[in-house]
């Protein structure tokens, strides 16, 4: 079971990386020459996690999509521009993957965070 879950996770994360490269032409975590756009804290999180968009032009609007360890979409927050807090009441312990997408659906950045309750 553990080997199967690990294989599914790495396959899913690899597909996320390839999708980001195909859509943006660069690595999803480094869209602007190594500068990350999303700062998230606290990580690991217990009750909530904050996502803060670090950029100079705050008129851009993004969607934040959260997937669980197995690749199932857990949450989607639309229309964020600078900062949002995600309450983790309905989240279980474990590793989650987030995607930040622009209004056209292009992957801007992806990453992971851990929930510990």
TrEMBL record:
Keywords: Signal. Residues 40-107 form the Secretion system C-terminal sorting domain. It comes from the Bacteria. Pfam families: Por_Secre_tail. InterPro entries: Secre_tail. Residues 1-19 form the signal peptide. The keyword Signal applies. NCBIfam families: Por_Secre_tail. This is Por secretion system C-terminal sorting domain-containing protein.
């Amino acid at each position: 079971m553990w080997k199967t879950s690990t294989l599914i996770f790495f396959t899913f994360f690899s597909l996320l990386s390839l999708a980001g490269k195909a859509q943006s032409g660069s690595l999803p975590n480094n869209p602007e020459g190594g500068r990350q756009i999303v700062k998230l804290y606290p990580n690991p999180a217990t009750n909530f996690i904050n996502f803060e968009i670090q950029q100079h032009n705050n008129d851009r609007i993004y969607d934040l999509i959260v997937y669980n360890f197995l690749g199932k979409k857990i949450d989607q927050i639309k229309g964020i521009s600078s900062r949002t807090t995600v309450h983790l009441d309905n989240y279980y312990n474990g590793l989650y993957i987030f995607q930040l997408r622009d209004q056209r659906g292009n992957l801007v950045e992806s990453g992971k965070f851990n929930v510990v309750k």
